[in-house]
């Protein structure tokens, strides 16, 4: 839960993906819409922090509800795209584990599929809790350990090297939330692709290609890729990729 993550490499991977991110981010939009549906009614002009804003899709959605939105992202390329799209009232480059905001300075903290890139979920939640005012709420979504199961299992038949990041268990996510009044919701979502390269390109398109475990030379050679295509599971002639999605609502007392 506290393994060191190379934040510069993560930021670079997502910056490279910024230009094509919106075309590839179907699952990210699905997750964010489910998360927004858990938000209570809030007065117009409430201060919302979009922590891990990406290109600003949900920053814009909150702004359209009449709120004052701060868009924050670790990746400068993503933040530049959000700024170009005019999605928020303020833009900050920063790390969710070290938020550049004052205590109790926002009414709602919203973080869609970003905290799985943090070194410590506990630290990220503590920071979001710190910057949220008493009576406010923290909404977050993240991925749990069985996410990308089909891709991980297929690669395991090719070699014994890491190709897919590992995610926290649902139990570990619940443990990180334990200090606060909270509710957690779990969903399994599966995308179907017409080809295995389509599966891989979907992850590349959203920037989710950085490996916490590190890379080895020659991992995606032609023979290994041919083997991957041969062993990847199919469902009704399509290639599935599943996500174990966790949605969390934390009450700021």
Automatic annotation (TrEMBL):
InterPro entries hit by this protein: BioC, Methyltransf_11, SAM-dependent_MTases_sf
Coiled coil regions in record: none
Top-level EC class as recorded in UniProt: transferase
Pfam families, alphabetized: Methyltransf_11 (PF08241)
Xref: PANTHER family: MALONYL-[ACYL-CARRIER PROTEIN] O-METHYLTRANSFERASE, METHYLTRANSFERASE
NCBIfam families: BioC (TIGR02072)
Protein name: Malonyl-[acyl-carrier protein] O-methyltransferase
EC number assigned by the record: 2.1.1.197
Domain Methyltransferase type: residue ranges: 49-140
Protein's GO biological process: biotin biosynthetic process; methylation
Gene Ontology terms, MF aspect: carboxyl-O-methyltransferase activity; malonyl-CoA methyltransferase activity; S-adenosylmethionine-dependent methyltransferase activity
Organism: Enterobacillus tribolii
Reaction catalyzed: malonyl-[ACP] + S-adenosyl-L-methionine = malonyl-[ACP] methyl ester + S-adenosyl-L-homocysteine
Family that this chain belongs to: Belongs to the methyltransferase superfamily.
Pathway linked to the protein: Cofactor biosynthesis; biotin biosynthesis
Role according to the record: Converts the free carboxyl group of a malonyl-thioester to its methyl ester by transfer of a methyl group from S-adenosyl-L-methionine (SAM). It allows to synthesize pimeloyl-ACP via the fatty acid synthetic pathway.
Keywords assigned: Biotin biosynthesis, Methyltransferase, S-adenosyl-L-methionine, Transferase
